[in-house]
Predict the structure.
Amino acid sequence: MLNQILNYMKNKKTIFSASVLFFLGTYAYGQEKDSIKVHKDTIQTNNVEEVVILGSRAGARSKVDSPVPVDVFNIKESSAILPQSGIGQILNALAPSFTSTIQTNSDGTDHLDPAQLRGLGPDQVLVLVNGKRRHTSALVNVNGTPGRGTVGTDLNAIPAFALNRIEVLRDGAAAQYGSDAIAGVINLELKKDTGKLTGQLSYGGNLTPTANDHTGNFDGQNVQVDLNYGNKIGTKGGFFNITWSSQFREPTSRAGAESGAIYNAYNAIEQRALNNGVNLSSLFNNINSTPNSQQIINSIHQYAQGVNYFTADQQAAIQGASTIQDIKDGNGNVIQKGLQSLLNFDVTDQELAYRGLTRKDFNMQVGQSKLNNHQLFVNMEVPINDNWKVYSFGGYSLRHGTSGGFYRKPNQSRTFTGLSANGYLPQIGTDIQDISLAAGIKGKWDGWNIDFSNTFGQNSFTYTIQNTGNTSLRFASPNEFKAGGLKFSQNTLNLDFSKKYDVWEGINVAFGAEHRYENFKITAGEEASYATYDTSGNVWTGNSQRPTDFFGAALPGGSQVFSGFKPANAVDKNRQSVAAYADVEFNFTNWLLVDAAARYENYSDFGSTFNYKLASRIKVAPNFNVRLAGSTGFRAPSIHQIYYNVTSTLFTNNQLLEVGTFSNDSAVAGLLEIPKLKQETSKSASVGFTYKIPSVSLTFTADGYFTRIDNRIILTDQFLRADVPAAAQKVYDELGINGAQLFTNAIDTETKGVDVVISHNVRFSGLKLDNSFAVNLSQTKQVGDIHSSGLLQSPKLEKVYFSEKSRVYLEEAVPRVKASLSHTLSWKNASFYLRNTYFGKVTGADIIDANGDGIIDFNEHQQIGDKIITDLSLAYQFTKNIGLTLGVNNLFDIYPTKNLPASTNNDQFIYSRSTSQFGQNGRYVFTRLNFNF
């Protein structure tokens, strides 16, 4: 892999090579120190070891002595110099095993950024705040992105400026922490600072030739204000710490220029009529049965003469037409063309010139979404006496995001040109509200550490669709719709006990219990956001006439780009779970540690599960440890996956039929004999070592891991009526549906990989240098048979259960190799930060003719190449109160491999939107004012 990285960079400015030499040079310098005599004050090594709490209930220990791998990132100390400012962005840059990138044109996912650990799903990593379970998002990722069908935790709801540090446990831990911890656990530790006000004011944007749809200059401007204040409460160590963060982020635009057809000849004539005060759309509702067809024909004859680029033959054909529809003989053969056929030719380039527009005026908004984000977080503790204290922490977050959909062009039936002659770009407005509050009491009683707490969390997505229309309402359509929303609430009650016994080198016994309540709601939107209307303006029931465009196509209902949730989709469901665990850590000798944990959980909706874990650390030498772990684990199906549903009504084969996503408890799922969702189960094993060379402050860790997950829950593709067996077709006909996709336990997977981390620091002549190298190599594969079931059990349907696109999202859309090499050099009041991150190749999900041989194989995809991203920043502290940071993310303005034409959607998606590497925004420059008082 190192050869890949170096080969990639050899034609670049060789900052990467220089940084490698710098790392190795300082190591060699440290080694030389051991072999020759030097003055003691020439070099000072930092022997203070980072301690971790995550992964053990026995309290803090150095991370190299942990029996499982844990990364520690000191966010408070590095916030001034780090180029990234959000939790997901920070971890994506610092932790090779973690992946999260900004999504585009993916509805609510545009504002959430699915996060993955060790290549597993966003719902297979557990997030804690101050050691307490964090609630997940209300959003189900149903669009074409990595993590499709999953429900993750909304890391964007927590301000990074509120954090002291982040711990990342890279090992299965469901036996210790419960559901979701199959890939590992992320613990966000809040600040406890008192006696000062600290803050940051940041401004930046993307300075790149691809800005503003590849016209250059500057876009994606971002202004962020972070404030943190803490003070003491009483005289016994009590405190409160409060953080406020506000972000105002502008969108980026990375589309090319719309290359497809935009206007047809009818659109041109329609515009000439509008110029003369006549709206042709007002002359008919349903073109197939309008009583004034001659008036429409006459108007077209009149205003067609104003289109000066029609050829003589075209003009003659139009003027000679006497009908709107084609005239056919008894056999269905056209004997005389009507205006619908004669006017359905492309005039895009000529009409753009006439209207003074360009193709870029019809671009989608491809890139990061517009976002305003406001966050408040509080952390506090108040001692009651010398042994007991109460604590509380929590926050409130409100985000308003606006993302774009696909442009509604004038030549499309979904665009009502009577109101929008040039079409429109619909926008999805998303309001995301997040509330959390934890409170508890902890202390000591008779040698026992006791912690009793209650943690509440709620996340909601509310959709307002803007600059759009319900086409079936024609002139009566509003341009904004309340489309409904999603809400998830969770309340967790914990009681934990632990005690240390002075036996052998120490035994720690811990046990506890947990009760969790969850609620999931879908709220219906306003009627016009989902309904289709007839020519009289009433909700269409299949028995009345629908409005059409000029070419006879029925006008679709619902708000364009995002149809609202219907009353039939509305749910208000809850469930409960109870759990008990035990965790015993044996220090048999000072060289042998063994940790054993077991956990039992029972859920009200699917039953119970029992899991266990055994981990050990063996100190082979004073600075060399071997560690190994094995565990079983589980992930309960999220309540969202059980009850989420969204459907649309289509007119197919002269019938009103439903298509969409049906819930696991629906009549559709029941009659198709789709099993109730059950837990995913896992088996994990890891083995590794840690090695320290204290004389040069050098630490090596390496860990190999393997995870097998059975009955993994996925979201299928659409099972269309025409493709399912006869018995299933009867169910479709009985329930009036034409297509269904469902959540089901359909596949088994295996993930294997290696994590390597090398860290080094040195002090010499007033300089402080920290170096870090980390690499993750992982591979996830679907193994065994597809678990098809019920009436949909058929070999030919296996590619619907788990499609080729779904396979790519699971196995190849996230880099299998990711590495980072970073350096921080500090001298007096100045700090210099350099980081290179290697993102391995990924695969686009589109099935296309990637090799250009004219044949499209079922598994033929575009390969998106590996890249190295360089980040650079410089911070200077002018006084003890004021500092300034200047920096660049993606210094060399690196972009992903461009899409092949077949995947660009008429040159809109220049880069893939279905993979997760490093995004498509290009170079980001920023400045940050740091202050404290």
